[in-house]
Amino acid sequence: MIIPENEAVRRGIVAKSMLNDLKRNTDVQLHFIYQLAAKAPDGIAVECGVHRGGSLVCWAGARAERGPIFAVDNWRSPVLEKFKANIAQAGLNITTYTEDTWRAASHFENGSIAFLFHDAAHGYEWGFLKDLAHWPEKVMAGGIFAIHDYGVWKQSVCVKHFVDAWATWTWWEYLGNVNGLIAFRRPSVEHKPGYLPG
Predict the structure, then answer these.
(1) What whole-number percentage of the chain has pLDDT above 70?
(2) Distance CA 114, CA 105 (A)
(3) Strands 181-185 and 173-178, how do they pair?
(4) CA 115 – CA 43 distance, rounded (Å)
(5) Does residue 59 lie within any of the structural domains?
(6) Listed residue (105, 176, 102) closest to 146, CA to CA
(7) Strands of 113-118's sheet in order across
(8) 197 assigned to some structural domain
(9) Residue 125: what pLDDT?
(10) Is residue 66 part of a domain?
(11) Does the pLDDT of residue 173 top 80, yes or no?
């Protein structure tokens, strides 16, 4: 059963989603990720870099009976136990891969994923470029690829640098940027001109 947006966002907050800004009491990123998951075609949905599962609990509410859901993270205790508890409380049926996210891409066929949310490696040394080299090709035409921490300034975060470079040669359709959560839709024809974020 599809979970209404406000209830799905509430569940994400209860699960302590990192997309909820507790300092500013705002849940706009959770609303955005739910809306993106709802807009994506039916089919496989994947989150890379799941941590406690708060964002997954939220957007999965828009994907009930629309295809299998996968979670990829190299979890360590006690975070893994918190993830399992959050998924169980939400009553979700999730397939998990506990490994480096870029390696887990090999479990999926090219063009097989309808919705992909990346919130894993953000830095040069953690493999964001490896993820960007492996995951987008797994997204189907019309599928949505959302990426967290775009434009977040920390010396160790390279998301904006590599996403901007990737976007210049892929020409995927730009769907918006809400507080550093940026999203694109894969065009049905590659290299179709689209909007490139500045």
Answers:
(1) 89
(2) 14
(3) antiparallel
(4) 8
(5) yes
(6) 176
(7) 94-98, 69-73, 44-48, 113-118, 139-147, 181-185, 173-178
(8) no
(9) 63
(10) yes
(11) yes
Cα–Cα distance between 147 and 163 in angstroms, integer?
9
- The model's pTM is 0.92
> How confident is the model at residue 195, as a pLDDT?
47
Q: What confidence tens digit (pLDDT) does each residue in 23-72 have?
A: 666 899 999 999 999 999 999 999 999 999 999 999 999 999 999 999 99
Instruction: Give the chain's end-to-end CA distance (angstroms, integer).
Output: 38
Torsion angle of alpha carbons 120, 113, 11, 122, nearest 10°?
A: 10
* Residue span of the structural domain in which 153 resides: 5-185
- Is there a contact between 178 and 29 (Cβ–Cβ < 8 Å)? yes
* Domain at 40, CATH number: 3.40.50.150
Render pLDDT for 93-106 as a digit per residue (tens, 0 to 9). 999 999 999 999 99
Q: Is residue 156 part of a domain?
A: yes
Task: Look at residue 98 and give its three-state secondary structure.
Answer: strand
**How far is 9 from 22, CA to CA, in rounded Å?**
13
pLDDT at 194: 47
Whole-Å CA distances, 176 to 34, 62, 63: 13, 19, 20
101 to each of 26, 56, 104, 114, how far by Cα in Å? Answer: 28, 15, 5, 17
Asked if 53 contacts 71 with a C-beta cutoff of 8 angstroms, the reply is: yes
How many structural domains compose the chain?
A: 1
